[in-house]
Structure formats: structure tokens, C-alpha cells
Amino acid sequence: MEKKQLRIALAGNPNSGKTTTFNNLTGTRQKVGNWPGVTVEKKEGDIHKFGYDIKIIDLPGTYSLTPFSIEEIVARDFILDENPDVVIDIIDASNLERNLYLANQLRELDCKVLFALNMADVARSRGLKIDAEKLSSLLGVPVVFTVGNKNEGLDDLLKAAVDLANSPLVISEERKTRYSKEIEDAISELKDTIRNHIDPAFPYNPRWTSVKLLENDEIVKKRLEEKAGPPGKVILAKAETLRGRLAKFFNDDPEIIMTDERYGFIAGIIKEVQSSSTRQRVDISRNIDLVLTNRFLGFPIFIFFIWAMFQTTFTLGAYPMEWIDAGVGLLSGFVASLLPAGLVKDLIVDGMIAGVGSIIIFLPNILILFFCIALFEDTGYMARAAFLMDKIMHLIGLHGKSFIPMLMGFGCSVPAIIATRSLESRKDRILTILITPFMSCSARLPVYIVLAGTFFAAHAGTVIFCIYLFGIVMAIVTGRLFRTALLRGEDAPFVMELPPYRVPMMKNLMIHMWDRSRMFLKKMGGIILVGSIVIWALSNFPRYDAPAALTPEMAVRNAAVQAENSYIGRLGKTIEPFFAPIGIDWRGSVALLTGFVAKEIVVSTMGVLYAAKGDDESDALRSALRNSGMTPLSALSMMIFVLLYVPCLATIGAITRETGSVKWTLFNIAFTTGVAWSMSFLVYQGGRLFGF
Amino acid sequence: MRLNEMREGQSGKIVRIGGESKLRRRILEMGLTRNSEIYIEKYAPLKDPLELVVRGSHISLRVNEAAEIDVELTGQTGM
To answer: What pLDDT score was predicted for residue B21?
Structure first.
């Protein structure tokens, strides 16, 4: 028997339990990708039930289908253009009124829609009683009760969806949202115009199209022009006239009146189907917020949580990092013992294993950090963090939610940039991505330790602290600059829900953590591998025919000569004039070039080039640096350059991926390098003027 | 009176929502429509944004966004 295929889309408000329901329906058989062209996560899962192959598509969580945010556009376009067999709207039963807004918009779309009244238990405990049968008959939509996090009602839900898919689409005209007479008149006039001017093959329902045109929906207008050709112009002109008429009648924009009337319609439904007396939330959530967003305690607790997150990430992460380090060491030792000495061995051991090893070692940090972020998100604390921080972040023109990614930047820019996904507005996302690399990541610390330790011995700590501070200042200054010059325009409305606190489910946390970490491994792994090979090749060719190294000193010298004569060494000398004004010699230049792959490499390159030798590497490097003619001022200049210049290859990969634009990536590379050079120049030349 | 002039613990009713169209619609879509009852839960520690309860859900708004909303006081519970 051949299996029948069904496609079911899940829609719903954020925090309605949609993700939990999706995870419970599909288990771990999920595919995570991006919606075409945008950086909104797309999740799909396949299940087999009732003799069907069912593909479940998780649409982004939205409050409405007004095409303002990317999420809303993605969700609506999917339903309009991909025609899923059934759309299940996950409704938070404890908050029926607000959730019905989206539900009602879905009904207007003329697709087969099914309501899942989720978290029915919470609703019951709040004394809300919902008459599902009445709701179903009033709206002409099947309704099923579910408790997503307890796996209750999910079979019924799927069964209802399959039944719905097999039945003809009927949403009778009387069941539709009714607007006031003036609007209904305008709708039917416009509907007639559409019917008269467009062939029946036009994909969208005429009533819905009329409603959207009266609401001045830019996307529907554009589609109409594309699909209908010249007659489209007539329709648009008619819509414009009708809008003018309505605006005059109501003395307000038609879309505002219509939103108002939809809520009026919903309020009517609520009166019929829901019985309750409680108006305000008197529950645990409110009591938790008495403490967590308290005027005096809010910030200390927030700072404590952040501190705890970093502590866990770096102290707990240190153990597995050691194991990975040891593992990579064992692997390269093992491989080295198998292969004969020569180019291939160098390529595999020094190029590939060392390069990828230097990135994979961050995996524990990244897993823990993402686990903490998932915890903040799933409990509902993330919205409170945004609530607390918004005033401060707004000074840079950013949303309160940008704080977390920027803070994560002190750990590693890669997860920080991936974490900007929690921001809703694309502008905020790009701005946050552009300035996050100025938050000094942990990989830069070894460079500061070596340079500051060598040249500012007693004050090293203070100097390093100032460097960090300088990074923050630069992020703020450039953030403001971008906001006023490049990413101008209205701030996205802050209007945000503070959802009730929930006990997170381990399964969801693990899925969230793993999804994001997998992305890090997959994409960054590839880029790093290629990058390491390129840098390795540039620094090993052309080959220097070294005399056999009889002593360790000679081996060190051989390595230095090899580096000096390699392509990258020559490149360093070629670009020396570029670095000379900021007090960095060719060796420093080469080190900075290799730092493009990963900032940790800067230190090891300096080790090779300054021909440091000895067992205690860092001591040797320090004396070599002091003897090389570097001054405290040029060391400071170099630290500032390291702080600000091009983020590492993995970060660049993350930027390309998350902005979805090569243009922004190139801009970021040019911009950060420009800022780094200018600042180092100011410090170095300024310092010389003052006689340092 | 404007919404941002309300104090913690006061409740009121929305009379009019002004401001630029996109913001207005966002506000409306979150359930802050004309005649809906609101309750000011609290202001953030830095006095901006504020948290209010409408239709049973907790919504936060920036003070300058709240300044676009005209309200009428209906009650004073709590503080």
C-alpha cells in the first residue's frame, strides 16, 4: 500500500508552547535549516501515523500575520504559497483572547486551520472554563485540547488534522470576521472590482485580498501587480480610493479601525465561550517578578545570573577542554608516528589537526553557554533581562535583548553572533553583529598577557582591563554611529510580552543547545579547516632547505628562517609600510596576518618569528620581544590593533551566515581593520608626540 | 492623561492610541485597543520601560511608546 503524504504547519504565538508541541510530536527527528533568504530558523520533522507520511513544519512564532517582521512574512508566505494541507494553530488556552487574534487571521487566509487549545491545565488552574464546542461552531474550526509539555492530546490533534486534510475546505461566509458596515461595503466593492478584472486563476481569495488591500498591505500590493499585470493597477487605484473614503469616514487609518474591529469580534467570541472572573494574573509568575525585576534587587540578581553563566562556562568548561586538548595531542602524536616525515605529515599534523583542534577546543564552552542561554529563554527570564537592560541598550540605539549577545562576545564572538537570532528586528541584529566583535573575546587574552606582561610588568592587569574597557567604548561609539549613519530609521517598537515563567523541559533545552552547537561545528569546522590549510601552506612555501638541525637552537633558527622566507613572511615584509606608522615591524605584521585564522595563533606565530627558544616558552618569548626593539608604546599599539581588527575566520563565517550578506561581511572586515589602524595610529603617534 | 503618567498600581482604560502607524498597529495587535482595561504592574528599575497587564497578559512598553497612548484612570489599587 502506498503511503499518503501530508504537510502540516504549526503556527502560534510566541510562548504558546508551540516549540514544545513540535518537539513532542517529532521527537529528535528534526531538520533545522533556514527559511530561504532569511536567517529565521526553519524546523521540520517527519512522522508516520495513521498510514500517512506527515511532514510537520514549525512556523516562526508570531502575534499576528501583519507583514512587519521577517517571522510574520515567512509564516504568511509559507501558508499562502506552499499550501500546507493543514495549519494547526497552537493557542495558549490560558490567554485565549490575545491568541485568538492570530487564530482569526489564519481563518481569514482561507486555509484548513485547526485550533489546539494548549496548556489546558494551566487555564483550568486559573479558573478559566472554555467551551470548545461552542468555539468550534462559532468559528467553524475544529478545536482540540492539548497539554503539550505532558504529551496529552497530541494523538487526538494529529487525528483531527488528518481528518481535516481529508475533508473539503469549508469556512462559510457567515463564520467570517464581520467588520462594520462601511468596511464591509468597501470590501464587497473591491471584491467585485477584483472579480471583474482578474482571471479566476489568481491564487488568493478575493475577500482576503480585498481586506489586505484596504489595510495597505505592501506585500499583497506587490504580489497583485506581479501576478495580475495591468488590471492590477486598476484594482490598486480602486483600493486607494476606498481607503481614502474609509479614512475620511472614521477619521483614522482603515488598518487601525480594522485591527480594532477584529478585537471587537474576538471579545464577542470570548464572551460566548469563556467563563472566568480573574482579570489580573495572581500567580507564581507575578510573585517571582516581584523579586527578579524588583527596583532594588533586579539588577544585582541579573548580574549574579550573568556572572554564574560565565563562571559555569569557563570553569566547568575547562575540564572537558583539557580532555579535548589532550585528545588532539594524542591524535596528532599518533598520526605523526604513522606518517613518514615530510610535507604530507606537516600538512596533516601542523595544518589540519592543529588548526581544527584549536577551534574544537571551544566546543565545551559553547555547549555550556548555549545551554545557559536556552535556560534563560525557556524559563522566560530572557524577556526580563531585556526589560531590565533596555534603557541602557537604548542609548546605543539597540533593543534590551542585544545585551546578552554582546556580553557573550567576551567569551567567543561565534556563539555571540549566533545568539543575535533572538533579536526580532533585522536592523538590530545587524548592528549587534557588527559591534559584538569589539567585545574582547577570550582568544585575545593570551596576546594581551604576553605583551602587557612583557612591557607593563607591574601594571599589566590595569592595562588589560583598560583594553577591555576600550573595546566596550568603541562598541558604544560605533554603535551610535551606525545607528545614525547606516542603519537609520525608526527603532523597532519595543512592545514585548513578558510571558509567565515556566519550568523548562530538559528535552527542549538539549534540543536548543544542540541545534546551535551543531551549526557551529558544521559551518565553522569547514571554514577553519580550509583556513588552517591556507595559512599553513603560505607559511611553509617556498621550502627553505634547512641544514640538519643538530641542536634545539638550530631547529628554532631554521623555523624562523623558514617563516621569514615563506610567502606569508614576504607578505609581511610587503605590508610592513602599512604597519610601520603604528609601530609594528614585519614580524608583528605576519603574526597579525595569521591571527586572521584565530587570535590564539598570534602568540604562537610571534614565538616562531622572534625565534624564541627554551622550555619555558613564554619567558623566552618575552626576552626575545624585549630585544627586538619593541617598546611599551608599540606593544600597546599592537594590543589595540588585536582588540579591534578583523575578527577571526570563524567569526567571519558566522557573520556571513547570520547577516546572509557578503556585503556586510566585507564591510565588517574593512571597517574593523580601519578602526583598528586609526586607533593604533592615534595611540602610537600621539604617544610619540608626548615623548613615550 | 497619558499612559506614561500613570503610576504603579493604577488601572485605567485606553481612550486613544496615537503615534506612527507601524507602532500603533503593533500596540493594537498586542491587545492594547481602545476601551481595553489596563493595570500598571511596574516600571523597570531604570524607570523605562514599564510593564502593564492587559487582557490577562503582561506587556512591556517603552515610556516614549506609552506616551502615545491616552488613558482615563479607573481605579487605584495597591500602592
So the answer is: 77
- Residue B17 is part of a domain; what is its CATH number? 2.30.30.90
Q: Cell numbers of A678, please?
A: 586609526
- pLDDT single digits (tens) A518-552: 766 765 667 667 777 887 888 777 777 766 766 77
Pairwise CA distance, residues A107 & A135, whole Å: 13
B1 lies within 8 A of chain A by CB = no
Put simply, whether B7 touches A (Cβ < 8 Å) is: no
Q: Does A495 touch chain B (CB under 8 A)?
A: yes
Indicate if the pLDDT at residue A280 is higher than 60: no
A265 touches chain B (CB under 8 A): no
**CA A39 → CA A44, A153, A420, A493, distances in Å?**
15, 32, 10, 20
Chain B window 52-71: which residues touch A at a Cβ cutoff of 8 Å?
A: 53, 55-62, 65
Q: Look up residue A661 and give its DSSP letter.
A: -
Domain of residue B49 covers: 3-76
Cα–Cα distances in angstroms (integers) from residue A118 to residues A19, A88, A251, A300, in the given order: 12, 11, 39, 35
Report how far residue A325's alpha carbon sits from residue A357's, in angstroms, rounded to the nearest whole number. Answer: 7
Domains in chain A, please, with CATH? Answer: 4-172 (3.40.50.300), 177-275 (1.10.287.1770)
- pLDDT of A176 above 80: no
For A493, phi then psi, to 5°, come to: -55, 140
- Residues from chain B that touch A256, judged by Cβ atoms under 8 A, are 17, 21, 24-25, 28
The pLDDT tens digits for A95-106 are 888 899 999 999
Q: With an 8 Å Cβ cutoff, are A280 and B39 in contact?
A: yes
The per-residue pLDDT for A486 is 77
Q: What does pLDDT average to over chain A?
A: 84
Give the model confidence (pLDDT) of A442-474 as tens digits.
788 888 888 888 898 888 888 888 998 899 899
As for how many domains chain B has, the answer is: 1
Average pLDDT over residues A251-280: 82
CB contact (8 A) between residue A495 and residue B60: yes
| Test mutation, B37, B57, B69, chain A, max A CBs within 10 A | B57
Tell me the H-state helices in A48-110: 70-82, 96-108
Q: Which residue of A has its CA nearest to B47?
A: A391
Q: In angstroms, rounded to a whole number, what is the distance separating the alpha carbons of residues A136 and A143?
A: 6
pTM: 0.81
Distance CA A653, CA A523 (A): 7
Q: What is the mean pLDDT of residues A307-324?
A: 83
Question: What distance in Å separates the CA atoms of residue A561 and residue A463, rounded to the nearest whole number?
Answer: 33
